[in-house]
Write a structure and sequence with these properties.
- It is a single chain.
- By secondary structure, the chain is α+β, with helices and mostly antiparallel strands.
- 27% of the residues lie in helices and 28% in strands.
- It is built from twelve helices and 30 strands.
- The strands form seven sheets. Strands 2, 3, 10, 11, 12, 13, 21 and 22 form an eight-stranded mixed beta sheet that branches. Strands 8-7-16-17-18-15-19 form a seven-stranded mixed beta sheet, sandwiched between helices. Strands 27-28-26-29-30 form a five-stranded mixed beta sheet, with helices on one face.
- The longest helix has 25 residues.
Amino acid sequence: MVAVRYETAFQLYPYEKVPAQSAPAVRHPVVIVGGGPVGLALALDLGKKGTPALVLDDHDGAGLGSKAICFAKRTLDIATRLGAARPMVEKGVVWNLGRVFHGDGQLFQFDLLPEEGHRNPAFINLQQPYFERFLVEEIRAAQAQGAPIEIRGRNRVTDIERHQDYVVLQVDTPDGHYQIEADYLIACDGARSGLRDMMDLSFDGRVFEDNFLIADVRMKADFPTERWFWFAPPFKNSGTSALLHKQPDDIWRIDFQLGWDIDRELEMQEDRIRARVDAMLSSQTGTVPEYDLVWTSIYTFQCRRMQAFRHGPVFFAGDSAHQVSPFGARGANSGVQDADNLAWKLDLVWKGLADDALLDSYHDERAFAADENIVNSSRATDFMTPKSQVSRTFRDAVLALAGRYAFAQPLVNSGRLSTPSTYADFPLFGPDETGGPAVSRPGAPCPDAPVGNGYLLEHLRDGFTLLCLGAPTANDVTTHGITAEVVHIAEPSAALRARYLGDGTAAIYLIRPDQHVVARWPAFDAAAVHHALCNAIGKEAL
């Protein structure tokens, strides 16, 4: 029997017995364990490319509670490519502006998207259950068009048997156990990954000695749609820092930093939570508006990652592979980028268009990204909770200076907000023969820009794209059964020129299926493009 570990917000894939439960083990190309944002995004991406994907989740929908709420522009760009972004942005609370306070005084404010010409905002606040629901809705639409995606709810993996080129899974359901096989298994089962434990794999890093109280509060309030963060908040019993920002449905997320030595059971009592919330609200409005406590939790956090994200036919993605603090919104965002990186590689390998060795680059690129996130997350945590007198003296000096001098403001760290990684100088990228803008250099995710009545990213192909800007059009380039299709924009907009051409008048860009730049040239050279395309899929030039 599959135990119910938590209450669900939405029942998205109710349990149904399938014929495979009464038959010999069936081999699947890709099995994904975990129906959160990472697993669902990966399944949707694979299915739309035509690679069959089976998702196993031990519940039948999204868990109750907001959990991840900040989804960054890069994640929304990925969701746009997958066809799921529109309801996310429509439902989400859009914000670009943040404010940082020390006590009752504002130190500074920041704008996360100071330039125009992007389809998606810098961030939206959207409760994770909605994010998952919109992904499932797009999966259902894709299934109706023939995409080979299946989701099985209340299917819990209880054992794994590894072989050199496949795995066998023991799966528990309300109707008993059955077995399935997978050419590739993707563990998207979270920070407490059961699959990682079954394989006896390490998860190394730091545990930070602090506790944070989350309170999701439903209320009508006139606070602006911004991110507000306080060091040494002025309201009573608020701890050493506090955070406030808005979610959909008139729900506000409030975080209080409580310290390490607390009585969790005592702090979770409703009267104590309400006392803190009352103090915060009254300090900002002069009164305490009526509100409901929707969801509360106390958490500690860790910055950890696995030594390797690939173990033969088994891959780890999202929190199962790496874990960071919530400050900076790097958890779910980096996990969706894991899925974005892995999907096109699995698709090419399963179709026989690339060698299995291409999949090794998943660990190389995404472990690099995880390390970037862990460094940024650890620095934020060390600034918020100094571990030595020297660190505290530095932090206090920075806060004292930041309200008066602009040079000190970048040193204030309340969580460096999520930005995508650039795979600079990695083996599958290059060359860079234009000397163009750094924002679009090889390894970088493509920046968006206006094109006609739309935007650049929506013009890119599902596979490899050969983007021709301002130059005479090029020709499609094919190698090893893979074609880089031409997209020609003869008259780039000013924003497109600024982000891709710089001082140049023309450029040719080779772009991967995950919309990362592979290489760029000042003019079309078929041989050079052919060589770069071969390199991008890990093959020798023909």
